[in-house]
Amino acid sequence: MAVSRRFVLALAGSVPLYGLASGRAVSDPGLTQPGRTTVRYTMTAFTNASETDLYVYESTDATNFQLLRGSAYQPPSGLLRDPSLIRHTDGRYYLTYTTGWEGQTVGFAHSDDRLAWTHLYDYPVDVSGVTSTWAPEWFVDPNGEVNVLVSLSDGVRFTPHLMTATDPGLQSWTPLTPMVGLGPKPDTGYGYIDTTVVHHRGQYYAFTKDEQTKYVELAVSDQLRGRYAFVQTEDWAGWGTPREGQCVIPLPNSGWRIFFDAYEDGKYLYSDSHDDFRTWTPPAELPGLSGTVRHFTVLPERG
Predict the structure, then answer these.
(1) Using one digit for the tens of pLDDT, what is the confidence trace for 185-200?
(2) Can you give the pTM of this predicted structure?
């Protein structure tokens, strides 16, 4: 795999890891420190059988997941697709999800134990011209800000947007603003969706799906809102296409894992990196759940 010069420069200019993966509500995960281990990984997913039911799974190795509860939550109306999970500072688990193929809302629910869930609200997206609101994704910044990344469509093209919680109870949000550098290309392309961000070595790494080529590409910025610059494009990691629903988490001992949906093949795959995202292992099927789960996130909690 060829590594772009811009990507090498981005890493060279970084500062030591004070990591935070998307979908996690702790600013010092400890997963990359020697001697620290992860007690559990929680997966929240919808399945091929239902796009209105939340399925919750648990693992101790981020590979072999066991069902905790099927149909753990159904929203009062609409769909439940693309569920993303965090554990907030109040100790509760919070879920955000896609409420429909078309529409202008983002769903929210919470739980004390990951098993019993309560609907909070459907948040209205007040952006002119929006026809679809897809794949909301939590991101908790090292400074403690709680954010949600959302892919907004005008009916043709997608642009990742960002909103930030303005109260500890996650009831109110800043207006949604585009993530600079991740918008549709001026002359071609359908934009970018399923964007997930990790904070690594002082920078923000956005793994985002090019909706025209269906490749998961990589962009980097000094700030969460951007401006992002693409450092790896096309089939840079050997994951193939079409791929979507990506989720990136840290592993113990400085590794990283990406999960993604190979939806045309009916498979869910994962791939690992141990050299700061430069190279990745060949994609492997997720045992037991490949072909069953769809667009999920995984929450690591350390012990």
Answers:
(1) 877 789 999 999 999 9
(2) 0.89
